[in-house]
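User: quick one, fold this
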Amino acid sequence: MRKGSRRFFTLFVVVAFLTSMLFVSCQPKEAEEGEAKETAGKDYTDNEWTDGQDLSGKTVNIFGAFVDTDAQRFEESMIPFEEATGIEVEYEGSGDFESLITVRTEGGDPPDVAAFPQPGLMQDVVNRADHIDLSNWFSQDYMQQQYNQSWIDLGTYKGEMVGVWYRASVKSLVWYSKQVFDKEGYEIPQTWDELLALSDQMVADGYNPWSIGIESSGATGWVATDWLEDIMLRTATPEKYDQWVAGELNFNSPEVKRACSIMGEIWFNEDYVLGGRNSILTVPFGDAATPLVQDPPRALMHRQASFITAFLPDGTNVGEDVDYFYLPQIDEEEGEPVLGAGDCFTAFTDKPETEALMRYLTQGISTKAWLQSGGFVSPHNDTPLEWYPSEVDRGYAEILINADTFRFDASDLMPGQVGAGSFWKGMVDWVSGEDLDKVLTNIDNSWPEEE
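Assistant:
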């Protein structure tokens, strides 16, 4: 109803207006009364998370890096907990999370819970701030029911359980031109030798087997580190991988050199790579999958994480135009490992409502709403595959579930001056033709001294 927008008002209009205002002013009170009736007498102890306590009316705040759509989907995934416990979950997301969480914890103003996208950052923060050892809340038996041991290990630091995992992403994927595979009758390779044999067959059939591009502005080089990390997991033990991440296994070691040699069999084979070795340095990583869906395809395979679908041309049908398979094993004794990333939650306040929320986060139900929206992988053992909205999403989950070993992106775990510095740069230098021994020695020399 407009007010003050016409020259003449009739008494009827004035009365109608006042009546409408009175009606509107009554709504909040009526709504509150309705909500009170709905919650009156509700048993907030009948849930899996509060250990029989009525914690209704309490609030838990979470600070993380989820923003925009991700933040909305996360908030929606907290609703079952809020409705069952009466605890309000307040989420705050920031694109500057990495710097702000350090400021807040060091300044004595930590959130109840923080959602870390990098375990290295989580370790750095808990090393300097008061936090909860989650083993005081959750037994090892319980955690092993909820997670693969690799996830538990990733959440453990200096003998304490400092984080529980909520979201995972899978990097060990090879995308391929499904139409050409179907036309030529190519079979999905199950071993590295079969992958190389398939590459040779593609060359004989007149195709470029691989499209590779690593240009990423100031972050150029991370694509190469991902490849090397995936190969390290397939040729060295998980313990060796962990030693490498910790700086205890040199880059200029037989294990890393062998991984580089295997990587070079594909990267530096001019018959394999679209545009040859030089194009690897200049093709933006986001464009490197596009040749698979061009008409006709200019290359047939591309190794990249699940997010690459967001960079494919509009109209691309994932599952029909392009599909993916698991990057095959190399050494049989290392099984089928998976390289990935994810989000880990750490608690900073010792309150029953915080403990209840953290228990909820260890269970697949906490991911259901977001997972059913697509593009999400749950690391929880109790997450049914039926919750995934598509075959593509279920495929990611099955790869993760069937992994013999899961390890986080090594460069994300290493000190920043190495993982996002000399390691990235070293891979670029190597692809540019620099001597491998020199490159690896330079990375080793960049490792920071222990404090």
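User: anything notable?
Assistant: The radius of gyration is 26 Å.
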